[in-house]
Each structure stands twice: as C-alpha cells, then as structure tokens.
Write a structure and sequence with these properties.
The structure holds 2 protein chains of 2 kinds.
Chain A (H helix, E strand, L loop, with lengths): L19 H5 L15 E7 L5 E7 L1 H4 L4 E6 H5 L23 E2 L5 E7 L2 H10 L1 E6 L6 H6 L13 E9 L2 H7 L2 E9 L11 E7 L4 E6 L6 H9 L6 E4 L14 H14 L3 E4 L2 H7 L7 E9 L5 E13 L24 E10 L13 H19 L3 H8 L8 E2 L5 E2 L4 H12 L1 H13 L3 E4 L2 E7 L5 H5 L10 E7 L5 E5 L8 H13 L7 E4 L16 H28 L6 E4 L2 E4 L2 E6 L1 H9 L13 E7 L19 E13 L6 E11 L6 H20 L31 E5 L18 H16 L8 E2 L3 H7 L5
Parallel strand pairs in A: 1-12, 8-30, 10-11, 14-15, 21-22, 28-29
Antiparallel strand pairs in A: 1-5, 2-4, 2-6, 3-5, 7-15, 8-13, 9-10, 9-12, 13-14, 16-17, 18-27, 19-27, 20-21, 20-26, 23-24, 24-25, 27-28
Helix pairs in contact in A: 7-8, 10-19, 12-13, 15-16, 18-19
Chain B lengths: L14 E7 L2 E7 L5 H8 L18 E4 L2 E4 L12 E3 L13 H9 L8 H14 L5 H8 L10 H14 L10
Parallel strand pairs in B: 1-5
Antiparallel strand pairs in B: 1-2, 3-4, 3-5
Helix pairs in contact in B: 2-5, 3-4
Chain lengths: 796, 177
C-alpha cells in the first residue's frame, strides 16, 4: 500500500471526506437549524446615519405589538457588560453590541427587539422611534489620518488606531546605491469573504447551572473567554457548542457582539434567544468588512533586475471600531518581502477609523493586499527594464538552497523551491504559447493580457502580531490541542477543540490519527468538543490547522502507539526497541508471529490493570497541546519577529481579455502551481485552492463595499455587491509541488488561504498587461467593469 | 414618512397550507406573508433548504416547484398550495441514502461548508432532468444562479459531469471514504 514514492497509507491519498455526506443529504447542523423550546427571536434596529448623536429612543409602539417581549437599547445594555476588546491599545473607544449616545456608521445597531418570531421582531424594529442629530461623517481614510477635529471617536483624540514605521536594514543606503527606483500608489478595495450563511447565534441561560450555552456560526479564537469577560461571567460559565456547522467564514465569522447581545438577553429575559442576521444586517451591520488599503510603494533595483530595497506605506481604513482589524497590518511583517531576496525594507503601517462598518479578519489576515502591492512593484520593475516578468522573478526569488531563509523583518521561511514551482506553472499553461495567443488577440484589435503573480501563504498562525502591535500584550503561544481515545470496544474517537467552516477538520484529524495507528480514517469518529470540555485551542484561523491540529493529532496518536508498545514490551518480555507497531498490533521485529493484537492490547488497558506496566494510567487515551513551531519569542525592539512558521508558495498565470466597449473582463485561461508541502487531503487542498482563486477574482474585478461621500453604505444586497458565479470563474489548471516543511511531522504547511494569496494580484497584473499597449494603468482594485469602460471610452 | 408614523403590518389571518413535499403530503399553518423557505424550514422542519440572501440572488434556497428550480425565498408558502415541492431531503429514494448526483458531489468533494450545497444539488438535478448529457458550459449555465463561496465551482462542475457520466453508465463510483 505504501511505497518509497508514497510512504503513507492515508495521507495524500484521494479519499472521500468525512464531513461531506451529511451536507449532501441536507443534514448539516447549522445555527439556524437549532430550535429550542420557547426560543425568542431578535431583530436589530440599525442607524440610518453614518455619524450622529442619539437624542432619544421611543420603543412604546414596538412594545405594544403582539408578540414583542422587549426592546433593549444601548443605554440599558452598557450598564450590564464590559466593552468588546481591541487588538491595539484604544481604551477610550468603547465598543458595545448596541450604540449608546452616538452612532459611528450607517447600519450600526442601536436597539434590539425580542419577539416571538423574527417576522414580528422586524415589524417592531420598524416601530422603534430613534431620533438622531446628524454629525459630519469621516469617510476618506487620508482625511481621517490627518484630522484633528473631525473624529469618529472624540475621546480617542485622533482617528489613528495604529501607526508605526519599521525599518529593517540599510534602506536609505540601498536606495541611494541602486541604479533605479520607482514610486507608485495602489489601492485594495473594501471587500470581504461574504459567506452565503450570515452570522447567527443562539444563546440559552441555564439558571440551575449558572451556565450560558452558546451555539454560533463561529470562527473566532478565544471566543468563549471574550464573551465571559464582556458579560462579567467566569470562564467556566460559558459553554460554546463547537459542533455547529458553519456555513462559510474564511475569517469573518467573529460574531462577538452578536453573542454578547444574545447572551445578555437570554440571561435577562429567561428564555433562549436566537439572533440570525438577515443579509442587510450582515452587509451593513455585521462588522465583517475586510482590509481597505492604500499602498504607497517605493522600490529600488539595479539594471540586472535585482530588487535591493523596498518601502511600503500601508494606510488601512478600519471602519468604525478596531477590534482585531489593525492587526491585519501586522501579519504581513512576516513575509514583507514576499518570495524575494530583498535585503532591506521599510514598512509604515497605519490603521485609521472612519464612519464605516467595522473591519474584521479576512482570509489571509491582510496578506493578500500586501502581496498585491509587492507583485505590482515587481511587474513595474520588469516593465521599466523591459524584462520578462517571469525572468525578473526568477532573478529575485530566494533559491531553494538558501532555506531556512531569514528575511529583513526577522522571520525565517522554512522551505521552498520557488523557481521550480514558477517553472511548473509556466510549463502547465505553455507560457510561450500563451504569449503567442495574447499577441494574436492583440493583432485582431483585442485587449489581451497575461498576469503573473508569485506569492507566499504564511501558515501556522502564531499570534506574534499581537505583541508587535500592542506593548501590553505578551502572547507568545497560539497552541492547538487534540485528544485521541480508544474505547473498551477498541474503537477510536478523536476530540478536536474548534468548530469548522468547511475546512474538513474531521477528515484532517482522522487521516493523521489513522496514519499513525494504521486505522482506516472512515472508522474513526471525530467530535467537536464544546468549549468547556476542550483543551486549549485557537480556532481554524491563519492557515494553521494542517500544521497545528494535524501536529497535535499526530502527537496524541503517537502517544497511544508508544503506550501500546510499552504494554507489549512488558507482557512479551522484550525491550520496546525490539518491537514494531503495525496494522493495529505490536509484534517482535524479527518474529512477527510473537505479539499482541489490538483487542488484546485494548483489553489490557481497559480491564487488565495487572498486565499493565507499573505506574501506567489505565484506559487508552492521550492528549497533546502543540506549541506553534518556531514560536515562543517576543518581537525585538525594532519589530523583528518570527511571525508564522511555515510558508506555502503559489505561482499564478491567467490570460484575460477586456472588451473595449463594455470593459468586461473575460478570463480565457488560468493556471496555478502550488506548494504547501505534504498534502494530507488532496481533494480538500484542491478545493481550498480553487475557492481561494475565485475569491481573489472577486476581489480583483467585482466585490466592493461602496460608500457615498456622506458615509452611506451603497452595497447592502447582492445586486450591488457582486459575487462571482460559475460564469465568472474559469476552469483552473493546477500543478502541485511538494517542498516539505522541516518544522512539521509530515512536512505539511498551510493551505486554507491558498489561491486567494495571489489571484487578485494575478488578475490585476493581467489587466495592466492588457492595458499596456494603450498606455493605461489600473491601480485600484476592484477594477470594476464601469471603471474599465470609463478608462477605455477613448479607445473603443 | 417620518419615523414612528408607520404602524406596522396588519397581521392577516393564518392559513392552512397543503402541498406535496418530497412525495408526501405536507400541511402547516402560516401567515400569508410567510415565504415558502420559512414554511419549509420553520413549519415543516425541513432544514436542508437554506437562507442566504432573501432577495433571490444567491440560490441557497432553491427547491423544485413542480419540477422547476425556484427561489423559495421569493415565493409565499400560500402560492405553493397544492403544488409539488422537492427539497434536498427528497433527492434520494430513502432517507439516509444518496442519489447518484449526491454521491458524485461526495466523490469529487464538490463542497466545503455545505451551506450552498442543497440549492446547488437542486439546480443540478433540474439540469440533469432536462439534459442527461450536458457539456461544461451547460453545467456552468445551470448553476450560475447559485453562488458558492468555498469551492470556486470547479469540483461542482466535476461532480455534475461525473453524475451525467454515471447516469449514462460511463463511470462507476470510486474513492474510499
């Protein structure tokens, strides 16, 4: 079954996932499927203004409606809870689930109606009479940065949430010594992952136990702790049920304000509370927007194409409240030079607040916008020198023999072979042939372009950006746990400590445990522990679960295996070193007929204590809590830090054509080569990669949360915020490459953000290649149809 | 109109609604304003059909209405009175079974979070009923009204192509589970 080419029984094999079957049968267990006796429903009352003082709230008419139980206002709520925590120091920005005294964005929730049904709650929400006095809105992030009097949160004293300039290496000297330098500005538009399932939560207070049960469509580190702190409850009085299926997240299903609000109402009112966002709640009031960045870039390079230094200034529009959003400027520190041997770099990171819906973690935690800026710089250098863009990258890539390679900002990349992966994608799509195809389209008057992007996906999820951006935060672990237990009948159950949003963690854990114990993963049960029965974990963020859950599951399974070997050694009178574990049995290495089989070993563990080695605990179970590989150190004074441990790599090449009349972009061809080390579940990695590419195509061409000059949100529906369909996403050609990570047991790296890391950059590169013959440039994403048709109106 | 001057919906009398769902008679009581989606989920407790946008774009709530795919968020339950509805729960012959199409979704991993999947299956089922051998562009066309944020559609197209092959006996089930 295994071979030198393929040393694994289950890892890397084409297998069906454990999770899919229930979804296909319509038997997923999503939060909106939970129905509890006497459950009441919440509808929020949202602010119509971007910036206003709340003068009064009259809920009498709402309360008079049949079936309405309560209308909670911010004034009432704030007396009973602590504000939501921020990732950067901003103690005077007090963020509550419901606004009080002032609203800071259009769509912000000011009151919550509780009723017998969502229909009635919505009726009543329309009857809540809120009087406002409008105040000027801060909409432009550059104006926000400079403002001294027009402030989103006057108590904070400015609109700046974070501002620091890092300099790593001799940047000024390198710029002075370089043959050339270029400066430019690019913008990454405000978009998000926009899962098809909105956020939802059900909360039930159990007065007999003094316990708040929470079911939520959640992907949030330390969720239960933060709910407890806000509700002023002990940590062991919140139980988050992590077996709720999450209908897509890709970072954004954070839902703290929702759970705090629902938990507060459940405890105050004494019946279960359900709060499921409708689409407008989600788009405008869900605080789930993504990074919105202006990059000012300077790049220094020599005639031979060597890029020697770079200056990046990133101004991010965080929206109304910081939360963890400013930290999304921190993660890119760990791959701030991309896959390139750039010797010095300056990085100025600025996060400002404006009167817009709050930003939250989005797939890649700020990496995709940064990759787009870096890739744009590389393309511009190639154009300036009239060098092929692939050749220029080849000259600047870190070489395979240089790993581990430490970049100027202090992070060591674990492994990689960027030249080979780049070559694979060029071969896959026949790069020279593609140029011929592009030029043929150009010859008949078409606007065709080839995109090139070669990007990193940091994985493993250390939280090193927390201490980097917040001096009072000394977090140096971002651990993950797993328990493996074998029951008295010999069957295996694996406990994982997180919910899942489609990442296939049950398949991951079962595959790894099955590999170690030689048990078919289909026979292994994987259970999502609730937060009280879980060991420490940090949720499936940061492309970390293959590395962290995979690592924890492997160590726990190995502990089981080692214990079985010790039991066999004790009973066979052989040293453990003379024994082999194979096919659920332990036998003497040079005498396979002498050994103990699985049932005999399990029986000893569960019944025959007299046959166990002295001092060994009875039963057959093991847990492991894994520290992040390469993690555990605080940032240096100058900000140098080991950010994430593992670095996946992807190289994209699309061919696109722009319709001169309409500005519509058609993707004719698209290829990617991808290296995430050892692939554990090929179908899952493939799906992540394809989905990530689609998400980046959306970010490049379609998806944007638009605001008018008064701060009104204009894209609250899917008729305004455009999501790519099967028509817009082409068939993708894929090639895999495997450079194992030396830091993980199987050589695996992260893949959860794959595709998205480079596809927006690749499409932008292609659009600009198509526009090049006209002397035009598109430097703002998304490059929407209207923007292109406007640019092209003189070139039809 | 100024805030507070509007005095809410005047509730209309509940109606008893009878329809056929997945081959069986279904009956429930709902207000006339209740959508077919909410009626299926809340009244009949068929929670396989999902709410995504409630304005007819995302397709997560797609069901077959007398054999044709429709948005159940854009239809009132009372409009379904006497009609024949098929939801994801009715795609296989028996509860717990999978149809060929469903099995192909599993084999190609044509989903991740599973939230759009029921609507996607219904759209694909409708396609295969009218065209038992669609090409890729016909498949993409048929699912273009169903948004998926996880997969980028690639493995969904593969699944539907595989289902057509299998229904035409050009392929057999594969991949260990």
């Amino acid at each position: 079954m295994t071979s030198a080419d393929h040393p694994y029984r289950y890892v890397g094999r084409q297998r069906r996932t454990k999770e899919d079957r229930r979804f296909i049968a319509g038997q997923g267990r999503f939060v909106a499927d939970i129905s509890l006796p006497d459950m009441r429903h919440v509808a929020p009352v949202a602010s119509p203004h971007a910036s206003a003082r709340i003068l009064s709230i009259d809920a009498d008419a709402a309360l008079a409606l049949d079936g309405v139980h309560a209308v909670l206002t911010g004034a009432q709520l704030q007396t009973g809870i602590e504000p939501i925590q921020h990732g950067v120091p901003a103690p005077d920005i007090r963020w509550y689930p419901l606004a009080h005294e002032a609203v800071c964005y259009a769509g912000e929730w000011v009151a919550a109606v509780v009723a017998d049904s969502r229909h009635i709650a919505e009726d009543a929400a329309e009857l809540v009479d809120v009087r406002y006095a409008e105040t000027p809105a801060v909409v432009d992030p550059e104006v926000a940065f400079d403002a001294t009097d027009a402030l989103v949160h006057p108590a904070h004293g400015s609109n700046v949430l974070f501002h620091r300039k890092f300099v790593w290496g001799a940047v000024d000297d390198d710029f002075a010594a370089a043959d050339h330098s270029l400066s430019f500005r690019v913008k990454w538009g405000r978009n998000s992952t926009v899962p098809i399932e909105t956020f939802g939560v059900v909360a039930q207070w159990q007065p007999g136990d003094g316990l708040l049960d929470v079911w939520a469509s959640i992907q949030m580190p330390k969720y239960s702790d933060q709910i407890a702190e806000s509700l002023r409850l002990a940590g062991n009085r919140i139980r988050v049920h992590q077996d709720v299926d999450v209908g897509g997240s890709y970072g954004v299903k954070r839902g703290l304000k929702h759970a705090i609000l629902a938990g507060y109402l459940a405890r105050e009112l004494g019946f279960p509370i359900r709060l499921i966002e409708d689409r407008l709640d989600n788009m405008s009031g869900g605080d789930a927007h993504g990074p919105d960045r202006i990059f000012d870039m300077d790049v220094a390079f020599n005639d031979d194409g060597t890029i020697t230094s770079m200056k990046i200034r990133a101004l991010d529009d965080c929206g109304a409240y910081p939360g963890r959003a400013p930290l999304q400027l921190g993660k890119p520190v760990g791959s701030i030079v991309g896959p390139y041997r750039i010797g010095s770099v300056a990085y100025e990171a600025i996060s400002v607040c404006t009167n817009k819906t709050a930003q939250v973690a989005v797939r890649g935690f700020g990496q995709a916008p940064t990759n787009f800026a870096i890739e744009t710089a590389v393309d511009k250098v190639a154009r300036f020198l009239d060098l092929d863009r692939i050749e220029l990258r080849r000259r600047n890539f870190i070489r395979a023999e240089d790993f581990p390679y430490t970049i100027p900002s202090g992070t060591a990349y674990d492994s990689g072979d960027y030249h080979t992966v780049q070559q694979k994608v060029a071969d896959l799509i026949d790069y020279q042939g593609l140029i011929t195809r592009r030029d043929a389209i150009r010859d008949r008057g078409g606007l065709a372009g080839i995109g090139i992007a070669s990007c990193l996906e940091p994985g493993g999820g250390n939280a090193a950006f927390e201490p980097l951006f917040n001096p009072s935060n000394d977090t140096t672990t971002w651990m993950e746990s797993c328990t493996v237990k074998v029951d008295r009948l010999g069957d295996v159950t694996v406990l994982i400590c997180t919910s899942s949003a489609g990442q296939g963690h049950q398949t991951l854990a079962a595959t790894v445990v099955g590999e170690v114990l030689h048990i078919d993963p289909a026979e292994i049960r994987v259970v999502h522990s609730d937060s009280l029965s879980s060991l420490p974990g940090n949720s499936p963020v940061a492309s970390r679960m293959a590395i962290m859950l995979g690592g924890a599951a492997q160590r726990a399974a190995e502990a089981i295996r080692d214990r079985l070997i010790a039991i066999a050694a004790h009973n066979l009178g052989s040293p453990g070193s003379a024994l082999v574990y194979a096919d659920k049995s332990v036998h003497v290495a040079d005498d396979p007929s002498t050994g103990l089989d699985w049932q005999a070993l399990v029986r000893i563990c569960h019944r025959q204590y007299h046959l166990m080695p002295p001092g060994m605990e009875p039963g057959l179970q093991a847990s492991h809590t894994l520290q992040v590989p390469n993690g555990g150190t605080m940032p240096a004074e100058d900000g140098r830090v080991q950010m994430y441990p593992c670095f996946s790599f992807e190289a994209h090449i699309p061919l696109i054509e722009i319709d001169r009349g309409t500005g519509k972009v058609r993707i004719h061809d698209y290829a990617i080569a991808h290296d995430c080390g050892t692939v554990i579940s090929p179908a899952i990695v493939k799906g992540m990669l394809l989905g990530g590419i689609a998400h980046g195509i959306g970010a490049a061409l379609y998806e944007k949360f638009e605001y008018d000059s008064a701060g009104q949100h204009l894209t609250g529906t899917f008729m305004d915020y455009l999501l790519p369909s099967a028509h817009e996403i082409p068939e993708i050609k894929m090639a895999e490459h495997c450079t194992p990570s030396p830091l993980t047991a199987l050589g695996q790296k992260g893949a959860g953000e794959a595709g998205y890391m480079g596809s927006a950059a690749a499409i932008a590169s292609a659009v600009n290649d198509a526009l090049l013959p006209l002397g035009l440039e598109a430097n703002t994403l998304p490059v929407k149809l209207g923007m292109l048709s406007e640019m092209l109106k003189d070139h039809i | 109109m100024p805030p507070g001057s509007w005095r809410g919906t005047v509730p209309m009398a509940d109606r008893t609604i009878r329809l056929r769902v997945n081959g069986k008679t279904g009956e429930g009581v709902a207000e006339p304003r209740v959508t077919l989606l909410d009626f299926l989920r809340d009244t009949l407790r068929l929670t396989g059909t999902h709410m995504g946008c409630e304005h007819g774009i995302c397709g997560a709530c797609t069901v077959l209405f007398d054999g044709a795919p429709v948005r159940s968020c854009l239809i009132f339950a009372v409009q379904a009175e006497g009609h024949d509805i098929t939801t994801v729960e009715g795609l296989a012959d028996a509860a717990g079974d999978l149809s060929v199409l469903q099995d192909c979704f599993w084999e190609t991993h044509a989903l991740q979070c599973g939230y759009c999947t029921p609507g996607m299956l219904i759209a694909a089922q409708a396609l295969l009923r009218r065209n038992n051998d669609p090409d890729d562009s016909e498949i993409r066309d048929a699912i273009s009204g169903n948004l998926c944020r996880c997969t980028g559609y690639g493995q969904i197209v593969e699944a539907i192509r595989l289902a057509a092959d299998r229904l035409n006996q050009r392929s057999r089930p594969g991949n260990a589970s």
